[in-house]
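Saturday, quiet lab. Running sequence design on the structure tokens for the scaffold JK sent over.
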């Protein structure tokens, strides 16, 4: 008799990792996830998955899952009842708020959890404590995209869908290693290449993506604005700009033109000879439809917002906005970077980017939420909250984040968290940050709840419950509902993910028509979707930009060097990034045998000539120091990085963020995670 079991259940859901938002089926047997199966109807990935997506079910039933609330007593965590833990949180947050005011609390929301959790947490923070100190970890990846694209286009989101690259005549990948960081978006680029669509990669590193380029341009790290300004100078000088588009659809062209006149020759800054700048610029200007795709190489710098605006400048200069095959598209590294911002887990906006500073918006939200006195002030961002631990921030609530590993300057983060009077961490696993908490609450992972993730192309994808959460762990939005009810607040009586979503839709004009019903279709729906009859908006800015006057804005932007540049003491420039096998701080991916096997520990790429001069051999352990800390890591000797440039993946605890710089982009408050000065030492073994 066959022992093949046939009682398998297939639950269509969305990959919990990057912002591509691939569809997949979780395979469930006897109440447990046992694998994934391709979801061929998904128009995003057409049944294909990258190594992370294919193993995403493995951490779900890990024995390491948090399953009970924990309270720190006498320096040790002990198991607690839910009531005890929630009562303590309410008591401490109320006491702190009553004594020190709403600016003494910090709320940090993960981009990895569903929209419904993000909306629930920010609503609870705003309604219960009248604070705007709510932010999410988009701050340390795509905060500059939200700020920059909003300023240029009136909307801080990607303009075109991923598959639209197949309609392009030229794809420019700038500061994006799409093949490793967003593999199924990378698949679209590979499909485009097969179609004969040329690809330009602009990156200081010869990455996996640069390898498939028709034209790879290496330039000095963090000199984007100078390079873009020079490209625009030559396009204007040779009269190759799109005059009709500039005249009809934009403003500020004269400011841009005046600024770029200083940038004819930028070889000293960028390392790129003028003839090469002209070559790339004229290719972009000549393409009928050209798309710019960028990622953290553009954003994670103190010039992040200006870098993003430079991408917008270039696209508008050549009229590459508002139709198939064009656009400016930031690739989001986490599944719900777009959604966490959309949900109002942001210090200056409610859901759908409705400004808190507007009296009209506040009155509307007060009516919707049945509350008075919502604040008008701009709350503190994620990293500002860390800097303010102790004064004025006394209590912090961290949902699904691991600041000790993922924020810049780990030593600074640890010292800051120690200054808090009270800290709550809600997560699915014990992380390096948990020891700094007073209460730890066990949440539910993507396989255990109904909800939505919004991908980098503004597509709202359904997440569906496949299995129960382990032990006593709870669905995160329900935890916020319980906290609110303990405080006697109304409007938090959600029973399902759809209840939370509909609560959000009711007060969010740009998403009012994005119903769960619409998301039943594999292609789901892209916001804006203002009415139930509306089909959604895959391409933005078709007839007019999203700004109030309908125009796109050019900005004349001056090049500024990074906050910390290499010098005699720290002569190397460190860049950071992702590798295909890991996701963020590896809390989940390191629990997958295959992924751990591929990259079990941190490494650093060092140029062949530099390694030779330092006597460093392939795979030798070396010490890397910055002004903030040091780390021991494995050398990968390669010419993929240029002389005096190093590259390190950001996923490891004893890794890049021991070294990185907390200096902030003045507009978006993005820390300079992509650029700092370091020294490299060979480790000399004692005889
Ligand atoms: Fe998941 Fe991103 Fe891989 Fe798709 S490309 S399977 S969304 S990690």
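Result came back. Writing it out in full:
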């Amino acid at each position: 008799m066959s022992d093949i079991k046939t009682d398998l259940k297939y639950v269509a859901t969305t990959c919990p990792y990057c912002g591509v938002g691939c569809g997949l089926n979780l395979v469930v047997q006897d109440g447990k996830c046992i694998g994934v199966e391709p979801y061929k109807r998904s128009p995003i990935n057409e049944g294909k998955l990258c190594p992370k997506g294919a193993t995403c079910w493995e951490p779900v039933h890990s024995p390491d899952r948090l399953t009970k609330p924990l309270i720190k007593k006498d320096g040790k965590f002990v198991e607690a009842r839910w009531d005890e833990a929630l009562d303590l949180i309410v008591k401490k947050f109320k006491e702190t708020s009553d004594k020190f005011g709403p600016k003494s609390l910090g709320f940090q929301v993960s981009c990895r959890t569903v929209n419904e959790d993000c909306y629930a947490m920010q609503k609870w923070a705003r309604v219960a404590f009248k604070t705007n100190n709510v932010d999410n970890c988009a701050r340390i990846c795509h905060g500059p995209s939200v700020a920059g694209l909003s300023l240029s286009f009136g909307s801080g989101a990607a303009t075109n869908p991923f598959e639209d690259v197949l309609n392009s005549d030229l794809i420019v990948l700038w500061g994006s290693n799409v093949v490793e960081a967003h593999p199924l978006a990378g698949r679209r680029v590979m499909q485009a290449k097969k179609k004969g669509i040329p690809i330009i990669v602009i990156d200081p590193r010869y990455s996996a993506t640069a390898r498939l380029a028709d034209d790879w341009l290496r330039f000095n790290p963090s000199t984007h604005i100078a390079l873009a300004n020079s490209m625009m100078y030559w396009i204007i000088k040779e009269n190759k700009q799109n005059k009709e588009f500039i005249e009809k659809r934009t403003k500020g062209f004269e400011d841009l033109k005046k600024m770029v006149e200083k940038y004819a020759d930028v070889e000293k800054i960028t390392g790129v000879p003028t003839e090469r700048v002209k070559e790339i610029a004229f290719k972009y200007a000549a393409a009928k439809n050209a798309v710019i795709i960028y990622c953290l190489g553009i954003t994670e710098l103190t010039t992040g917002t200006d870098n993003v605006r430079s991408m917008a400048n270039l696209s508008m200069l050549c009229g590459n906005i508002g139709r198939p095959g064009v656009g400016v598209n930031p690739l989001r590294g986490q599944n719900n970077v777009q959604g966490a911002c959309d949900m109002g887990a942001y210090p200056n906006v409610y859901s759908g980017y409705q400004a808190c500073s507007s009296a009209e918006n506040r009155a509307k939200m007060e009516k919707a939420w049945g509350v008075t006195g919502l604040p008008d002030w701009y709350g503190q961002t994620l990293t500002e909250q860390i800097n303010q631990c102790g004064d004025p921030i006394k209590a912090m609530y961290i949902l699904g984040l691991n600041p000790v590993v993922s924020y810049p300057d780990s030593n600074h983060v640890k010292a800051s968290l120690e200054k808090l009077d009270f800290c709550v961490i809600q997560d699915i696993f014990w992380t390096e940050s948990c020891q700094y908490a007073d209460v730890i609450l066990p949440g539910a992972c993507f396989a255990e709840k109904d909800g939505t993730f919004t991908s980098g192309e503004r597509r709202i994808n359904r997440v569906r419950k496949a299995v129960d959460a382990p032990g006593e762990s709870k669905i995160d939005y329900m935890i916020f509902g319980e906290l609110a009810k303990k405080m006697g607040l109304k409007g938090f009586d959600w029973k399902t993910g759809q209840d939370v979503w509909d609560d959000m839709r009711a007060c969010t004009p740009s998403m009012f028509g994005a119903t769960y019903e619409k998301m039943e279709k594999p292609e789901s729906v892209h916001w804006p979707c203002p009415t139930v009859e509306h089909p959604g908006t895959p391409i933005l800015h078709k007839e007019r930009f999203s700004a109030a006057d309908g125009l796109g804005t050019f900005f004349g932007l001056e090049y500024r060097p990074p906050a910390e540049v290499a010098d005699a003491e720290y002569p190397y420039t460190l860049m950071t990034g992702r590798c295909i096998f890991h996701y963020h701080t590896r809390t989940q991916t390191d629990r997958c045998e295959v992924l751990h096997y591929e990259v079990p520990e941190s490494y650093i790429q060092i140029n062949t000539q530099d390694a030779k001069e330092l006597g460093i051999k392939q795979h030798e352990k070396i010490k890397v120091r910055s002004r903030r800390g040091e780390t021991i890591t494995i050398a990968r000797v390669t010419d993929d990085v240029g002389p005096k440039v190093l590259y390190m993946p950001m996923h490891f605890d004893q890794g890049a963020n021991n070294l990185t710089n907390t200096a902030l982009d003045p507009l978006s408050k993005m820390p300079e995670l992509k650029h700092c000065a370091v020294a490299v030492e060979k480790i000399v073994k004692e005889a």
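Notes for JK: Residues 82-100 form the longest helix (19 residues). DSSP finds 22 helices and 28 strands in the chain. Ask whether to fix the surface positions before the next round.
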